[in-house]
Amino acid sequence: MVIVDLSTxxxxxxxxxxxxxxxxxxxxxxxxxxxxxxxxxxxxxxxQLISTFAIREVLNALRKFNVNVTIATQTVNVFEQEVQRELxxxxxxxxxxxxxxxxxxxxxxxxxxxxxxxxxxxxxxxxFYIEGEESVKGLAKNYVVI
Length: 146
Hints:
The chain is an alpha+beta fold. It has helices spanning about 10-30, 50-60, 80-90, 100-105, 115-120; strands at about 40-45, 65-70, 95, 125-130, 135-140.
């Protein structure tokens, strides 16, 4: 297990650079074919701090190498428009909590609900979308901070 905390002491540019290096190192390691029978997990919090190229590579390439990737971000608006449009195609599972109106408009087709329903979600409620499945609205009752 490797935990990398880039949350304090660095500028956004340095964080993007360092995070991109770590993601690239994981990609090279996974691509080398080392123990493909094992499952690997990559969790990226505050994904908007990672370069657009790295996010695209993580979501597009690592799944081929038995690496499960979870990204979390407060908003997708900080990503380039192209990446915002690609995210649903690159992700098999998307959980949408209350978001701004522009994001709600862009992603309302996933859970097949009105964008206003996403924009006005109550605290702790979410829409759960899995590729190829019917979407579900839920309530986050229990959650753990790690």
